[in-house]
Specification:
heterodimer; A: about 250 residues; alpha/beta; BirA Bifunctional Protein, domain 2; 8-stranded mixed sheet; 3-stranded mixed sheet; 11 helices; globular; B: about 90 residues; alpha+beta; Enolase-like, domain 1; 3-stranded antiparallel sheet; 3 helices; about 40% helix
Chain lengths: ~250, ~90
């Protein structure tokens, strides 16, 4: 089966709006299964659907430094998306093409990232349900939502994330840190450059990631494409939701 | 309003936070955390359904809603929610 491949970039609100727009179109069978690989420009922050914004973000710091932040439609935790250190992926597909079983579908999709990281020379390990670790530190996190027939799973791959910025923007709950046995955020997350001890090109990382997903998802061929006019229009409409206080401060 | 916060870090799972104002009845409740729920609106519906109820009615309501909507929770369980609510309203 061939999939559409979209590689693009956008700001925090646009990126979340596009993922949702594609999901809604996939649900109506208007577009094919899609792998989107994108960058946040400028850097931004997303929080999980169920998270309390004041609980998990350093709002003072974000507002003072004019860093965009929004709520995702997917559960999970808060993420700092570094424009110069993090690649985000989104898999939007028919549930039947991945797995009806939620846990299994996380494993299958995360398998693409694990494959890519191993190809790059890192000992990556999948930690259910939504994390990928290297040297026992998180390098990638994912979150999935489902409609009746289709799913959206998006997630991060940190290659050179500024861990100081990550620590300044996010406010992890104390109980969570104690459970992990370490105190600082930057002690429990890592990046590709840090683990490899050298830099590699972003194009190489993206190409390897595409290969990884091809293998993990059983894709015959990725066809480079763009959003349809209808997807773009819907994303423009959804953009205002993602930047609205009602949505962001819902919890 | 006398809002209090209860946090449960589920072993090997996610964080569940319940902000609640509860005397004889649940006057206010907000469930939050980094868990996953399918469908997501199960949590919103649950909050709505137990507001105004006493704890034993609330637990019955949760059990009913859980059977009806058959949600899949990842990182927390329905028993974690009930457990924290019980403690909060004790």
């Amino acid at each position: 089966m061939s999939w559409r491949l979209i590689i693009d970039k956008g700001n925090t609100y646009w990126n979340m709006a596009v993922d949702e727009a594609i999901l809604i179109h996939r649900e109506k069978n208007l577009v094919p299964n899609t792998l989107r690989i994108y960058v946040f420009e400028p850097s931004g922050v997303t929080i999980g659907y169920f998270q309390k914004v004041r609980e998990v973000l350093n709002l003072d710091y974000l507002l003072q430094n004019k860093i965009d932040f929004t709520r995702r439609i997917t559960g999970g935790g808060a993420v700092y998306h570094d424009s110069e250190g993090e690649i985000t992926y989104a898999v939007i597909a028919d549930i039947e093409d991945i797995s009806r079983d939620v846990t299994e579908s996380y494993k299958i999709i995360c398998g693409g990232i694990v494959y890519a990281l191993r190809k790059l020379g890192l000992k990556a390990v999948y930690k259910p349900v939504n994390d990928i670790l290297v040297n026992n530190k998180k390098i990638s996190g994912s979150a999935q939502t489902r409609k009746k027939k289709s799913l959206l799973q998006h997630g991060t791959l940190m290659y050179n994330t500024n861990l100081d910025m990550l620590e300044k923007t996010l406010r992890p709950p104390r109980v969570k840190l104690e459970d992990h046995g370490v105190v600082r955020v930057s002690d429990r997350v890592t990046t590709i450059y840090r683990e490899l001890g050298r830099e590699i090109s972003i194009d190489d990382i993206i190409n390897t990631l595409v290969q990884g997903f091809k293998k993990a998802l059983g894709v015959d061929k990725f066809l480079s494409g763009n959003l349809t006019v209808s997807e773009r229009k819907l994303a423009e409409k959804l953009y205002s939701k993602y930047e609205s206080k009602v949505w962001i401060y819902m919890r | 309003m006398n809002k209090r916060t209860f946090i449960k870090r589920v072993p090997g799972g996610k964080t569940l936070q319940i902000d609640i104002d509860c005397n004889e009845r649940i006057n206010y409740v907000l469930i939050s955390g980094d868990f996953f729920a399918y469908p997501e609106d199960f949590i919103d519906k649950l909050q709505e359904a137990i507001t105004g109820k006493n704890i034993s009615e609330a637990i019955k309501t949760i059990t009913f809603l859980y059977k009806k909507m058959k949600p899949e929770l990842l990182g927390i369980s329905i028993d974690d929610i009930i457990d924290v609510l019980r403690k909060a309203c004790a």
